Amino acid sequence: MKEKVAVLGAGSWGSILASVLDENGHDVWLWSNSQAQVDELNNQHTNERYIPNYKYSETLHATVDLKEAVDGAKAVLFVVPTKVIRLVAKQLVEVLSELKQKPLIIHASKGLELGSHKRISEVIAEEIPSDLRREIVVLSGPSHAEEVAKKDITLITSACENLEAAKEVQKLFMNNYLRIYTNTDVIGVETGAAFKNVVAIGAGALHGLGYGDDAKAALMTRGLAEISRLGVAFGADPLTFIGLSGVGDLIVTCTSVHSRNWRAGDQLGQGKKLDEVIEDMGMVIEGINTCKAAYELAQQKGIEMPITEAIYHVLYENKDIKEEINLLMRREGKAELG
Ligand SMILES: NC(=O)C1=CN([C@@H]2O[C@H](COP(=O)(O)OP(=O)(O)OC[C@H]3O[C@@H](n4cnc5c(N)ncnc54)[C@H](O)[C@@H]3O)[C@@H](O)[C@H]2O)C=CC1
Ligand SMILES: O=C(CO)COP(=O)(O)O
């Protein structure tokens, strides 16, 4: 059934998810805060800064008017950077109160709120009262906009404690190149999504420094141990971390040249300064903020996260990466499990 869907955030992932929904036959309204970007999307059907050489369908609508995007929408998808989720949710509340609508809320962002350390669905639930929305569903997994744009094969997870809502989102997005699995462990899916970006910065740094495949496999494996430890402390089901939104996303983000987190780490490993890396990327590198949140949480909860700590020292205390690696290697011997 054709449904109106509003997509909030017209960067690489938001615009490509909007394209998928359009191709699946829905009436899609992509909201951006940039008039120039909206004009480019509506007139040239391109979004060159984010997805170069890609043609969007002429049936996809872009607008800077949030009310126009949301009016009559059965679902609203957030795909803005984590740091503006609360701000955009507040803007949405104003519009929903005026329109007297109760859409399904979906989000596809990956991170934790700085300061509060809250998960994205918690921030959204805090801002949008339940009389203005239905369930909040999380869409997450190993997926790069550049590959979905090419209709390469991608498998991701739709997570909600309410399985029916997760299934609804599964149905909205599934097609012959995008396959969706449902999961009811929202905490596991959101924490896996957030923390894998931190490990990916480390994997990029190893590459930039010229380390080999053994080092990368070690980082990913011990990184997953840290992700699971912290995620379980949040209340996640440990099994979720061996699924698409856990190890699946960790693998793709630690190995893909499309990953902004991996590329940021790679450039840091090659000696570039963090400020320059951020400036040159021009797109969100979620792992930088998430590293701070994870580091603070680990300290607060007394959880051992040596890799996250090492990455924190490099990003926030200007420590030398090679020295941090040496310190990690010289830690006392440990048991692998536990
Ligand atoms: N790029 C990808 O392949 C994937 C990205 N994600 C996640 O999706 C989220 C968004 O990432 P991308 O689309 O890649 O980021 P991006 O950096 O490509 O684009 C972000 C977009 O958000 C917009 N934006 C920023 N602040 C805004 C505000 N206050 N109001 C309205 N729009 C605002 C920007 O103008 C930009 O268009 C991130 O949390 C990321 O981790 C998840 C899976 C895949
Ligand atoms: O989440 C992603 C892949 O699943 C995107 O990763 P990056 O933000 O590092 O590009």
Automatic annotation (TrEMBL):
Residues binding substrate, per UniProt: K110, R260, N261
Give the stretches traversing the membrane: none
Q: Which SUPFAM superfamilies match?
A: 6-phosphogluconate dehydrogenase C-terminal domain-like, NAD(P)-binding Rossmann-fold domains
Identify its protein family: Belongs to the NAD-dependent glycerol-3-phosphate dehydrogenase family.
Q: Which reaction does it catalyse?
A: sn-glycerol 3-phosphate + NADP(+) = dihydroxyacetone phosphate + NADPH + H(+); sn-glycerol 3-phosphate + NAD(+) = dihydroxyacetone phosphate + NADH + H(+)
Tell me the compartments it is located in: Cytoplasm
- Glycerol-3-phosphate dehydrogenase NAD-dependent N-terminal domain residues: 4-165
- Name it: Glycerol-3-phosphate dehydrogenase [NAD(P)+]
